[in-house]
Amino acid sequence: MVSTPEVLDEVASGHYVQAGNVKLYYNDVGSGAPVIMLHGAGPGASSWSNFQGNLPAFADRFRLLLVDMPQFGKSEKVVIENEGRLTFTARALDAFMDQLGLESAHFVGNSMGGQAAIKLAIDAPRRVSKLVVIGSAPVSQSLFTPTPLEGIKHIAGYYRGDGPSLDKMRRLMEVIVYDQSLITDEAVRERYEASLDADVQRIMTSTPPRNEDLSAQLHQVECPVLVVWGMDDRMGALDVGLLLTRRMPKARMHIFNRCGHWAQVEHRDEFNRLVLDFLSH
């Protein structure tokens, strides 16, 4: 059931589907060519929370499928063993598209979501028509910025030590964005409460999935790619975006000044125009 563009309701548009060996939750809004939207890997993340402000601009032109990746949001909290998160998630997305009868789709992925979409474009090229990645770093090292970056350290420490807290969430969100006025008490509490799932805490304090560096495979991405980056991103080094643009044959890059890791939030209107133009032509 696809909701109309006027009814952008998180609950009414929510569905579950068995995608291979993992149950995925997704929101289905709008109509038109399918666009799969994928969130990042921060605590409390979901695709609805990452992209809800962009939906009105997209939903009258595209069918938007906002998928919670395995271990996040309302999707199944599976343990990923003996393989990398990107490989596991790409396979789940492939199965998700089978279940929905989609041969191909456009993808818009923030951070880890963009990395998973890149992996899908490598493993199953027919699935990805066009790809937009926002601050996605599927490589291990930056040439100019010490790693791990500041934001990654905050994510890594969020569930460890004395566990989640409002203060930890606030400090993480302050690193994510350039515009600190976006960090309201309500936004911090909403994201904090979403991070408290007991299964998520168990998974995030266990051995993490194997790290995957896609550097040597980026040339296999055949589809047109729009690389979006914030000049002030403290979670993804800018030179990694340049590397992606160099290595992927049909890539172009757009850099937002005064922008952190959430270009779709901090520069919403310009981001919407940029991405809609890219996906429509």
SSE diagram, text form:
Elements: E1 14-19, E2 22-30, E3 33-38, H1 47-51, H2 55-58, E4 62-67, H3 85-99, E5 105-110, H4 112-123, E6 128-134, H5 150-158, H6 166-176, H7 185-194, H8 198-204, E7 225-230, H9 238-247, E8 251-256, H10 263-266, H11 268-280
Description:
The protein is of the alpha/beta class and 281 residues long. The protein has helices at 47-51, 55-58, 85-99, 112-123, 150-158, 166-176, 185-194, 198-204, 238-247, 263-266, 268-280; strands spanning 14-19, 22-30, 33-38, 62-67, 105-110, 128-134, 225-230, 251-256. The protein contains 11 helices and 8 strands. α5 (150-158) packs antiparallel against α6. It is 36% helix and 19% strand. It is globular.
Radius of gyration: 17 Å
User: What is the CATH domain class?
Assistant: Alpha Beta
- N→C terminal distance: 27 Å
The percent of residues in helical segments reads 25-40%
Sequence stretches where pLDDT stays below 50 over 5 or more residues: 1-7
Index terms:
281 residues, alpha/beta, Rossmann fold, eight-stranded mixed β-sheet
